[in-house]
């Protein structure tokens, strides 16, 4: 293999990637970040104050009204722990496909860590408690509260914390399989919690396959 052939192959691969990334990926998105924000605000206004479980049911049922079977029905059993970027919390997968995921994420007791560098744009709608964010160069914490939306652009990095109880609805749009190594690294190299690893793999794969069968990638 000479350098000429190598550069042709590289050029073709990069062009295909650029085409998929720019033209194909965004057409696979079904979730409208503004619709999600409205659902979160409406649900916060009607769910019984302080009952986060009731809020999860309310949001999930409104999501199913709009997005149908693309949203898994909520239940309290299918949560799983999540360790990533040195932060620990738990999540419930409402939707996962190649280009999007939609989850409840949070912790009852607080956590802190690295956001990860993701090939996806991330929308974080605070449902309960506070998320604190450290942006480079800004010595003050940016504080997000219930009803607020925190957007982390693709490729950007922050330090974040949930100083105590905090839960959020999280939407990611981009290359979801590309986010998985970050999602598994702390498990494989730190916690060695293979029960959680198996659970996460099972629920993620199940959601992705069911989405693909419905023609949603
Ligand atoms: C909170 O809401 C859930 C779901 O509607 C309900 O089962 C539970 O009893 C409520 N908890 C309290 C303390 O009201």
Task: Give a description of the structure.
There is one protein chain. The chain is an alpha+beta fold and 217 residues long. The protein has 2 domains: 1-30; 31-213, Jelly Rolls, CATH 2.60.120. Helix content is 39%, strand content 28%. The protein has 5 helices and 10 strands. The strands form 2 sheets. The protein has a 6-stranded antiparallel sheet with strand order 1-2-3-10-5-8. Strands 4-9-6-7 form a 4-stranded antiparallel sheet, with no helix packed on it. A hairpin with a 3-residue loop joins β2 and β3. α2 crosses α3. It is globular. The two termini are 35 Å apart. 27% of the residues are buried. The mean pLDDT is 96. 2-acetamido-2-deoxy-beta-D-glucopyranose (NAG) is lined by residues 51, 53-54, 57.
């Amino acid at each position: 293999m000479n350098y000429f052939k190598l550069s042709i192959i590289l050029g073709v691969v990069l062009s295909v990637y650029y085409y998929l990334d720019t033209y194909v990926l965004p057409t696979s998105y079904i979730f409208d970040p503004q619709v999600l924000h409205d659902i979160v605000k409406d649900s916060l206004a009607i769910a019984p104050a302080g009952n986060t479980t009731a809020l999860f049911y309310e949001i999930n049922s409104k999501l199913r009204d709009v997005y149908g079977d693309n949203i898994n029905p909520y239940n309290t059993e299918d949560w799983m722990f999540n360790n990533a970027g040195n932060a620990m919390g738990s999540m419930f997968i409402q939707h996962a496909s190649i280009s999007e995921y939609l989850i409840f994420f949070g912790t009852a007791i607080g956590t802190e860590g690295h956001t990860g560098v993701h090939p996806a744009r991330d929308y974080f709608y605070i449902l309960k408690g506070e998320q604190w964010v450290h942006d480079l160069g800004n010595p003050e914490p940016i504080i997000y509260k219930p009803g607020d939306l925190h957007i982390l652009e693709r490729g950007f990095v922050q330090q974040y914390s949930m100083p105590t109880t905090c839960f959020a609805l999280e939407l990611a749009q981009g290359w979801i399989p590309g986010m998985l190594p970050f999602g598994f690294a702390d498990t494989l190299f730190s916690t060695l919690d293979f029960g959680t690893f198996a659970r996460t793999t099972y629920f993620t794969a199940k959601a992705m396959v069911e989405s693909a069968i419905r023609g949603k990638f």
